[in-house]
Every structure is written in structure tokens, then in C-alpha cells.
Amino acid sequence: MCGIVGILGREPVADRLVEALRRLEYRGYDSAGIAVLEDGTLKRVRAAGKLNNLTARLAQANLHATIGIGHTRWATHGGPSETNAHPHIAGNVAIVHNGIIENYAELRDRLAARGITPESDTDTEIVAHLINIALNEGMKPKEAVLHVLDELRGAFAFAIIFAGHDNLMIGARRGSPLAVGHGEGEMMLGSDAIALAPFTSRITYLEDGDVVFLTREGFEILDEERRHVIRPLQFTQAASLLVDKGGYRHFMAKEIHEQPDVLGHTLGEYLDFGTGRVKLPDMPEGLDLATLERMTITACGTAFYAGMVGKYWLEQIARLPVEIDVASEFRYREAPLKAGGLSLVISQSGETADTLAALRYCKAQGQKVAAVVNVPESTIARESDLVLRTYAGPEVGVASTKAFTCQLMVLAAFAIGVARARGHLDEAREQELVHALQQAPRLVVQALEQEERIAAIARELAHAKDILYLGRGINYPLALEGALKFKEISYIHAEGYAAGELKHGPIALIDENVPVVVIAPRDALFEKTVSNMEEVRARGAKIVLITDEAGAAEHGAKAFQTITVPAADTFISPLLYAIPVQLLAYHAAVFLGTDVDQPRNLAKSVTVE
Ligand code: M6R
Questions:
Q1: pTM of the complete model
Q2: Cα 242 to middle of ligand 1, angstroms
Q3: Is the CB of 605 under 6 A from ligand 1?
Q4: Taking the CA of residue 377 as centre, how many other CA atoms within 13 Å lie in the half-sphere pointing to its CB?
Q5: Which of 41, 68, 131, 590 sits in a 20 to 30 Å window from 391, CA-based?
Q6: Of 421, 444, 467, which one is at a domain's C-terminal end?
Q7: How confident is the model over 438-484, as pLDDT tens digits?
Q8: 379: number of CA atoms within 13 Å, CB side?
Q9: Nearest C-alpha to atom 12 of ligand 1 is from which residue?
Q10: Domain check: are 438 and 457 in the same one?
């Protein structure tokens, strides 16, 4: 999603703004730009497409200003063109914006009534005009911004500079994240600490509703009620965490191969090595896992599929009824939730707008909220009662890989902890399950060893127009995840189905041109899934069977191709079967030459609804 940076510095800022924007590229964008204040005047350079287009233009611009703002834009209002790229300038105001202004049409009509026609199709430019009008009416910049913020509905983060004000930058956040960076004699704004990592590790995260006024000497924050507040200064490790491909061709490849390591790290945080049992953080006051009647899980995309796997574990092992929904639906469903119950949200970024809204809905219903998150400073982490952290490290590829398996690892440990608390797990069985989890990193290494063979199969799948993924039971979410991964980076249509649902409709799609990927470990449901495989085979479909050695020995011959995953306790099969589906998607996309790490139309962190 869009990325913001602002620097109020002592050195020329144009190159530094671009450097920061490069670190935000992982969020996904389709145009970029900067605006600086040079000799009291606003100057702007923008370009559609990737940052290299912007740097080519900047090379001609010869800017030496020491204050500026920059932006990578992921199109919402208006297509990805130079005219719609940020920053937007109206009179003496330059602004960059993440988020969506919901009352945009009404505000635009107000401008029209004054005879003002915006240049772009964006909601952002409207805000620039409104602030400029307030300035023209005699307000000072701070007053003008506060005045206009009161008029806006929707989600936003802004960074704003003003012609004639060389020592002022204003930031504001409602919904979308924004952080203040503290340099030596300079101040910064960024949509996350990663953007500012080259310049500072000292960060203050703004809270929802905050407005910040920066000068080179310092800053002041007003909260939503416009009272002066102090937000804590934090030291981040973002600088040490990013950002290179470590010799891999893509971040996604690097992140797939990091899984043995980050899974081990994540599990280590949830294990008591002395006893071989699960160790969970202290529960928030008022939450008793033993007497919990039900639980709700909400998330989006891949995190949602991790939640689906979590539901199987929690219901099967902990006997806890779990309701799960995608956050974008859940937030408007007005689901009745009993106060004192537990809601779990799952999010890699911790900033996904729908998941955050679901969290807030649950809190308003008196729920305790636990969050499985990868970014500990994120809004979701900060607003939750209990943080169950994944230790995947920064995930840059838009297609989630290592964050997914780390979410699974945390959910597995959580399910074990809940089962124990509810008296459904004796010590010996718990140790067995923990032992199975401990095997996961080693078995993932073995699964990765199949990469060359999987790449060859992926190249065949890359010729298809449609692909079906089938799975049953706990591997049904893996079929959904496999299809999502495949379509998002290869742009080939792929759907995941519960294998048993096939004859209720989707089987009509099957012919010799539709490959079917069947995810079927040799577990209690294996024979049933194989029956479904036979049904599609009989209709000419080419089968790619992903199974273990026992499954391959029994039915591998029926498949066009078989991918063998190491045999393991069925409890951890989702962790292992994630690897071949990730590799299939990755290698098909590489073969097709798509932008693997930043696929078209997608953003890493979806901070708008
Ligand atoms: O940051 P989050 O985990 O909340 O993101 C949720 C989804 O947007 C994300 O998982 C998305 O589906 C990925 N691109 C899938 O690979």
C-alpha cells in the first residue's frame, strides 16, 4: 500500500527521500513522487511506474532543498498516472497521503462551488485545496490543518509542507500508520520504521487521531481531543533487519528458504525446553482459557487461511468451538459476541485495515483480543490485550510465505496451550505434539530439497489458464492458500476447493486443460481425497499429487506428477505442505516473468478498506 516519508533535515533531502521510498517498495505501488521546499517555493517531481522512473527525472532536477516529502502510491481514487501521483500541490500546500477520504465527493463539490477544479482524480488533492483555502482565509498552517482534519471522514496518514515555511512539517494519522523519526538536528515522518531505518532508529509511533508538528529542533503531538500528549520514544531494529535478497533472485525465494530458521526461532519462543511443553505468555486479566465457551478468529488473505488451520487445531485438540470469518465481512456482520470471550486476529503486518476494524469491533463487544502478528510495533499489536508474536523477520515479498508458516507455528502452540488449560491434553500427548512441532524445521529443509523437481512441474502448470487445488480437513485451507499464492504472482486463475465439494459444482470445469493439484498426506482422510482425485482423473484432468512417500507408493502412479513431502505426524502436515504450494507458485511466476515480489495491483500491507 502507499508509503510516506518526510524529512526536515540539514542536508539536501531529495536522494534521501528516494532512499526511504526504496525501503517502502515492498508495500506495493504504481507511481512515486517527491516535493521539496526550495528557496521558499514548492517544487515537485513525480513519475508513473517504478522508482527508477522517478530517479531518472530527479537526475535532471538538481534539487538542493533540505525539507521534503515523498510518496509511493498504490492507486485507489484514480488510475496510476503521473497526474494522480503524490505529492499533490494546491497553492502553498504540498501533501502526501495514505488511505481513503470517504466524503471525497462531498468535499469535491464544495471546491466546485468555489470554482476550483482539481487536476487529478485523487481524494488527496481535495485535501490540499481545502488546507490552501484555509490558509488563504488567514489561518496559520497548524490551524488550517486542524480545521480541515475535522472535515474529513475515512482513514488517512498525511505529511504536509508549506511554501514559505522552511522549518515546519505536519503529520496526521487516523487509521493508517505514521511514525516520527528523531535524527541529529533533524526530524522525519515515515509510514513505518523501515523507511526511516537508514537515518535513525529512534522512533515515536503516532496513535490514531494524533497530529504532529515537526521542526528541526523538535516536535509536539496533539491527540484526537487536541490535547498535548507525549508518545513513547522507541528504539527499533528496522535498520538491522532489512533489506537485501541475500543472494536470491527474489525476496520471495529468500523468504521461502528462511522458513526452517524462522520456524525454529518462533517455536523457541513458545517452548519450555526444560519440560518439553508449550509456554504461552500470561493471559490478560479476566481471560480464563479453561472456561472459554467459544472463540472468534478474523483475518484477511493468507492470514485467514492460517486461521482456518488454527480452527481445526483448536477444535480437534482443545475442543474449543471456533468461528472464523474474513475480517472484511466480519466487521460489518454485527456478530453477537459474549463479553469476556476471546477473539483472535491474525496479521503479518499488523496494519491491515479490515483486521484492525474487526479487532476494534470485538473490543467494543467486551472481548479480550489476542493477536498473532509479525510486526510488534504495529497498530494491531498495540491495541491487543495479548500479543502472540511470530518471529518471521521482515517479509518483503507481497506473497506471504514465511509469515504464514510462522502463524501456523504460533497457532499450533496456542492450540496446545489451550488444550492443556481445558484438560484435553495429558503431559505425554502434549510432549508428543511438541516433539512433532520440533521436527518441523528439519522436515521443511527436506521439503525444500524437492525444489528443482517442483520447479519443473511449475513450468508445466504455467501453461494452464485455470488450475484447481483440492484438499480435505486441515489441508483444505492449504488448497485455498496454494491457489491464492499461484494466482497472485502468476496471474493464472486458480481456485481452492474442499475435495468433497467438487461434485457440487466445480467438477463441471474439469477437462484435460485444467490441471488439478491434490494435497493429500497419507492420513485418515487420504482414501476419500483419492476418490475425489479419481473423479477428476476420469474426466481427463492432469493431477499433481502432493503427498508423502506412503501416499505416493499407493496412488502416485495415478497422477501425472507426484511431489513427495517428508512423512510426519499429521498434526504438522500444514506446515510441510505449505512448502510445495509456495514453490509451485514461485517457479511458475519466475517462468512467466512476472514481477514476483511486487505483483501487479497488489500491496504488501492493505491499510485501506
Ligand atoms: O498483513 P496481513 O497478514 O494482515 O495481510 C493479510 C493479507 O493481505 C495477505 O495475507 C495477502 O493475502 C497476501 N498477499 C497473500 O500472499
A1: 0.75
A2: 19
A3: yes
A4: 22
A5: 590
A6: 444
A7: 999 999 989 999 999 999 999 999 999 999 999 999 999 999 999 99
A8: 26
A9: 301
A10: no
